[in-house]
Amino acid sequence: MGATRVGPSGHEAGILQDDPSALADAVADLVVAAGILDRNTLEAAVAARVPGPPPVAPVIVRAWRDPEFRARLLSDAFGACVEAGLVLAPTWPRAVVLDNTGDIHHLIVCTLCSCHSRPLMGVPPAWYKAHEYRSRAVREPRAVLAEFGLHIDQARPIRVQDASADLRYVVLPAPPEGWDRATDAALATTITPEVLLGVSLPRLG
Amino acid sequence: MATPSEPQALADGTPVRVRRAFPPGHFRTPAYVRGKLGTIVATCGWFPNPEELAYGRDGLPKRILYRVRFRQVDLWHGYDGHPDDTLDIDVYDHWLERGD
Q1: Which domains does chain A show, CATH number per domain?
Q2: Which residue in chain B is spatially nearest to A157 when comparing CA positions?
Q3: How far apart are CA A66 and CA A1, in angstroms?
Q4: pTM value?
Q5: Which of A86, A205, B49, B85 stands 20 to 30 A from A41 (CA)?
Q6: In a domain, B1, yes or no
Q7: Does B3 map to a domain?
């Protein structure tokens, strides 16, 4: 018999900590077997939590193409997104778009939890919710960005936005090289949650 | 400073200090800005007080939420980025005192 390991919670560790996906599968099987949910409902709920293309991607592309729309997006994100066809409930937290096309590079973090704009960005990456990112992004943003592979020139100021209250933030990135020769659809694929949070730059494949 | 029930608008550019307070319960003012000097850069609007909402109350009266800008060198000892690196955070009015 193997030695009993005890996890941080004081409970015995084992399969529950060694293989979270096996645990998730087992719980899903039990929920279906018990008749609590059918598998289609369960799979639809899981799919809604898997990161996908950010809903705001086509809006960003339009802002690259149309300077007047870009100005409206930066001054009134809700109005501009609705104008561009996004379906947004007025009761959702207000979003603000920060301009990363100018002299300052913005980086977004929520130090208190993981506040983000689900209607604009979609499901956040797992690292956005990690304690390490939330604590380090405010304190050493350049080092954190370098770990993402993004080296900001020492001469370019960085502004961290701590989104820990009632507003939600995404950045308007500078368009990728070659954007003026690319299709809207190709440009939209360069907009990822990482780009919208300011840890990555859009890049055409 | 404004009384808790009657917040008074602070203009953009007003220097403010975040209260160095450690109340019990839920609040949304991170420790790293408490006691620090910053500048109002925007008024975000009026919002129900999250410290009340957290306990199922109505959050009224609403508070004014300000965007406050800090120089990173004022927040972190030994910060070694660009001297103009800044941090913006939205702070409810009852956490702010005039900083001048």
Answers
A1: 1-50 (no CATH), 57-197 (3.90.330.10)
A2: B85
A3: 68
A4: 0.85
A5: A86
A6: no
A7: no
